[in-house]
From TrEMBL:
This is Polypeptide N-acetylgalactosaminyltransferase. Residues 1-22 are annotated as: Disordered. The keyword RNA-binding does not apply. It comes from the Eukaryota. It comes from Columba livia (Rock dove). Keywords: Disulfide bond, Glycosyltransferase, Golgi apparatus, Lectin, Manganese, Membrane, Signal-anchor, Transferase, Transmembrane, Transmembrane helix. One of its GO terms (cellular component) is Golgi membrane. Residues 12-21 have a biased composition (Gly residues). Pathway: Protein modification; protein glycosylation. The keyword Cell cycle does not apply.
Amino acid sequence: MPVLRTPSPGWDGQGQAGGSPGTHRVLFLDVTLAPRDPQAPGQFGHPVAVPDDKQEEAKSRWKEGNFNVYLSDLIPVDRAIADTRPAGCSEQRVHDDLPTTSIIMCFVDEVWSTLLRSVHSVLSRSPPHLIEELILVDDFSTKEYLKEKLAQYMLRFPKVKILRLKKRHGLIRARLAGAEIAKGAVLTFLDSHVECNVGWLEPLLERVRQSRAKVACPVIEVISDKDMSYMTVDNFQRGIFTWPMNFGWKQIPQEVIEKNKIKETDIIRCPVMAGGLFSIDKKYFFELGMYDPGLDVWGGENMEISFKVWMCGGEIEIVPCSRVGHIFRNDNPYSFPKDRVSTVERNLARVAEVWLDEYKELFYGHAYHLVLKNLDVGDLTQQIQLRKKLQCKSFQWYLENVYPDLDAPLVKASGLLVNIATARCVTVENTTLALETCDVNNKHQQFNYTWLRLIQHRELCVCPASSAGTPGLRRCHGRSRSLHGRSRSLTWLHRSLVTSQPHMTDHIISRHLQPPTCLEADPSHKALRVNACDSANPYQKWRFGNYYAD
Ligand code: UD2
Ligand code: MN
């Protein structure tokens, strides 16, 4: 029989005293199967050491989950962990009428003890009346213990439902399958190797109750993959991304914290979420079109949902009083139907195509191999229609209002294009190019060097050889990511060979011609030509007026 242990009074003993009507102090619940053994390995989230005579076994079992599976099996499934919430969290009040939630936990070949600990931590540290159900979505696991044995074990928890997928869907579509059958007002997604800390749930639901367009994420703490200890993380972390859409964490600068008097318990608005752990109003999730179902297996869905939420009127928040531990692993312990890298790249390219507007060039510029391989991202009609229907804002709005600290210059360089030897500037004369005296106010001397490596003047691009055999101009046509065929012949390398050819950085190189050739000022000083590249030749060296990126 489960024992209910409440180290501090669960309900605020004074009823409404000290708080507004209809609210209560966040519940401190921590149910155990039996009184806890303080000597048990890993108890209280402490680190565990592998005994000398078990090193081999521990090593050989590592690959079952890409973490210390041997130790996970030693640790009680309902171990205690330190209450890592910032001071003040336990006094916070939440509404009595919080919405109920369906917990959705997808897994594929998850380690037995870790999956159990995840489930136990949810059920023992959440107010039962708020948990509508816990849906375990089995994404076509191959391990025998996850079949009948798991079903039998979970019989003791009437709220646990197991949804078995008939083929491998990947975590994105598996979550959608869970969402389809969920009955709670709010969906709460969790990974299958987590430990929810005390008081984790109510603060998340409180945010969603406040506004259905708030998507609430707990602080993700670290369960060590090596010694299974539960470790807290620094406060004031935001979820961010860098190009080409790599997720990361970034601390709010100390001066910003001081200037704005940000407290440890304050909600943190995030440009993007990590992906795995969040609560979202179910109806709102469906209105947003859930995840793009064209995203495959793993990766990029956190970018998609984050952009979608922000640009279509919602908010992504980290709730410091809600804390959940997660085993971070160096590699996925399961196989990918296709390889991991190309799966994630394709997912991200779909996200870029639908959400990034003109900024998608930054994505492709930072992942230029995708341009070269002419990646097929599949049909985007539905996603683009959805964005229209929801009347979402532009990516530029997102950058200005949500993530102003992201470095996102639309082009790599711009302004005059000056020849070093002659100090003269490339000038557009009707549809041809000439070298003239430089004049910053001359509109015909303005060029952009784009992320797609075009040298662009309005809709025209510098091409290495026009019909006259000299460099000329051509329509850049469609500036799209698919730079196939003719338009790829319009690409130039400039300042991008710093590591491989440091003596050629000032050159403007066309690799389209064989051997590669360089843009050069003609001896007349009035015209342009292309010639065999020569690192010492100053007539082949160029400088744009402004550089925004390397
Ligand atoms: C992070 C997220 C994860 C997801 C992923 C990008 C956190 C803590 N984790 O990577 O939730 O957003 O980024 O997509 O924010 N799974 C399946 N089927 C699959 C693959 C995975 O069910 O084909 C399950 C898996 O068992 C796990 C969950 O999905 O419970 C997330 O996978 P992960 O733990 O390998 O991802 P993680 O934490 O590296
Ligand atoms: Mn995970």
